[in-house]
Amino acid sequence: xxxxxxxxxxxxxxxxxxxxxxxxxxxxxxxxxxxxxxxxxxxxxxxxxxxxxxxxxxxxxxxxxxxxxxxxxxxxxxxxxxxxxxxxxxxxxxxxxxxxxxxxxxxxxxxxxxxxxxxxxxxxxxxxxxxxxxxxxxxxxxxxxxxxxxxxxxxxxxxxxxxxxxxxxxxxxxxxxxxxxxxxxxxxxxxxxxxxxxxxxxxxxxxxxxxxxxxxxxxxxxxxxxxxxxxxxxxxxxxxxxxxxxxxxxxxxxxxxxxxxxxxxxxxxxxxxxxxxxxxxxxxxxxxxxxxxxxxxxxxxxxxxxxxxxxxxxxxxxxxxxxxxxxxxxxxxxxxxxxxxxxxxxxxxxxxxxxxxxxxxxxxxxxxxxxxxxxxxxxxxxxxxxxxxxxxxxxxxxxxxxxxxxxxxxxxxxxxxxxxxxxxxxxxxxxxxxxxxxxxxxxxxxxxxxxxxxxxxxxxxxxxxxxxxxxxxxxxxxxxxxxxxxxxxxxxx
Length: 493
Prior knowledge:
Layout: E1 2-6, E2 25-29, E3 31-34, E4 37-40, E5 44-46, E6 59-63, E7 69-74, E8 79-83, E9 88-90, E10 104-106, E11 128-130, E12 135-140, E13 143-148, E14 154-157, E15 166-167, E16 177-180, E17 186-189, E18 197-200, E19 218-221, E20 228-234, E21 237-242, E22 246-253, E23 257-264, E24 275-278, E25 281-285, E26 290-294, E27 297-301, H1 306-312, E28 322-326, E29 331-337, E30 344-351, E31 356-361, E32 364-368, E33 377-380, E34 386-389, E35 401-404, E36 407-408, E37 416-422, E38 431-438, E39 446-452, E40 457-463, E41 465-472, E42 483-489
Antiparallel strand pairs: 1-42, 2-35, 3-4, 5-34, 6-7, 7-8, 8-9, 10-11, 12-13, 13-14, 14-15, 16-17, 17-18, 18-19, 20-21, 21-22, 22-23, 24-25, 25-26, 26-27, 28-29, 29-30, 30-31, 32-33, 33-34, 35-41, 36-41, 37-40, 37-42, 38-39, 38-41
């Protein structure tokens, strides 16, 4: 008999085959690794009892000059302001052009523009996709600026809960997104229907857009074959992301005001809400990879789960994907619709502090990090209500778990018998373990347990490969470290 440490590295590895995840965590939900130790993510509770009319695609939290906290949220046909108490106010601008709650995919003959594909070459499954409508929401001082990707106009809301947002005077129309820069210029991205044009207002004056010797309004066109998707402020620059590349805008002052250089290629943004900014830089989801910008250049992030994530995404609805930070734990979360799902139902997390990845299932359509509020906020995809996250450990009907890839004891030639489990769990009994064993890689898998991770426990099973699954059993802040098993190596049969 000998004691074997099940010393599984932090995070999930889901690239390649099941066997390639040997000795790693292979699957998980609602767990994170912090300081190298597995623990459950925080739970959630309802912040507002009033549902939005449709699924929310874009939100913002901010604090006014008199320390009043607001939440703004937009659906394909509505714009809302929520008070700190969770009271919903409809501030939809008059004449807002409704967009699409879901993306529309056009296929087959006539599904794209004339000349898009060569004669005799098969078109892709989706020749053209009209994306789901999203909102770009920005604070300008204490006021709210809002732009709907389909309506294209820029609106301003001046905090009156009894009044709707109003059209911003003199601003360009038919815009794809907006950004208030750190220098206090308002950028209209994809201005006037030109998918490569960046137009900005005068400094501190979002009603002045015509360039003159007495102001700093201006415009330029990106040198790109892509279309602008979004803009964010990062490390003193305005980063503009297109479907193909990334451009950094730097304030220079008159007469040019802004200079723009391309800082990354083949790094296009997958969805308008899929870029996240933290102190370390910007992180975003591309079409087939994850990227980061910091220190003046774009880098692809080496991901332990990219094979799984990008083969799992419903590409026709990828425009619904969104990202958010969870600064309490140094994490970036992306939510996306899986294959076969019309709505966001899964997530992938990158812990940039510890360089680990984890995955899970949760239906959320929009979210923001803590800041104006003490906890992160998200909108649920099913009931369309606002929830406060990282509160307690209640997950509705869901159960936190993690499941490993296979372990081979020794060379894997001999059958091993496992006789005892010696747990390493902080709260003693809040977590159960289930073992799964096979005699051959493609053989029948048998399960044993559950066993409580409270005291050394007698277990009896055999196999050439074993896996362990741990599941939280109580609503508590449990921890799982390095469990050990007592094994005996037998013969080859």
